[in-house]
Specification:
With 189 residues, the protein is an all-alpha fold. It has one domain: Endonuclease III, domain 1 (Orthogonal Bundle). The chain has ten helices and two strands; from the N terminus they run αααααααβααβα. The chain has a two-stranded parallel sheet. α2 crosses α9 and α8 packs across α9. The radius of gyration is 16 Å and the shape is globular.
Length: 189
């Protein structure tokens, strides 16, 4: 018997696995939160499936998303990344990842963890929506607008409101699984 899923994940085993195991699950681990922040920035203007297909290459190219290492990237490393066909070779996005790593580390020092900083936008509790159709799901909301504004003020790049909302969805800050999806209730635990 097949499970009811959000329709956006149908079409590839990789996307289905991501949906079934990661998307929308409340995430508090700083390293994983950083990975999603970087991947969402690279996703700007592209499909999430493109990023998923390149995720392992990104992990290899970006030192498993270790912010301490990325913050120290040199011009030579940027040049190397620009030659890596396994990732999105966009200089602005690569430079933003380096800048975001530096800012991320500063936020950790200031707040004790990035998780404490980012989850405060939803009062440290996931927002549980009750959409019955994917057409109801917004691309942004007031919280993603405020998050984007604050992240930019704090020094992050490639964090527009649409990216912030997608980030909230991916990290479980907002549960946008449709109500008939089997993950809807699972992501509330």
């Amino acid at each position: 018997m097949s499970k009811n899923r959000c329709s956006r994940c149908e079409g590839s085993d990789l996307y289905r696995s991501y949906h079934d195991n990661e998307w929308g699950k409340p995430l508090h681990d700083d390293d994983k939160l950083f990975e999603f922040l970087i991947l969402e920035g690279f996703q700007a203007g592209l499909s999430w499936s493109t990023i998923l297909n390149k995720r392992e290459a990104f992990r290899l190219a970006f030192d498993n998303f270790d912010a301490r290492i990325i913050a120290e990237y040199t011009d030579e490393k940027v040049a190397e990344l620009l030659q890596n066909a396994g990732i999105i070779r966009n200089r602005l996005k690569i430079n933003a990842a380096i800048k975001n790593a530096k800012t991320f580390l500063q936020i950790q020092k200031t707040y004790g963890s990035f998780g404490k900083y980012i989850w405060r936008f939803v009062n440290h509790q996931p927002i549980i929506n009750a959409f019955t159709s994917e057409s109801e799901i917004p691309a942004t909301n007031d919280i993603s607008d405020a998050m984007s504004k604050q992240l930019k003020k704090d020094g992050f790049s490639f964090v527009g409101s649409t990216i912030c909302y997608a980030y909230m969805q991916a990290t479980g800050m907002v549960n946008d699984h449709i109500t008939r999806c089997f993950r809807y209730k699972e992501c509330q635990k």
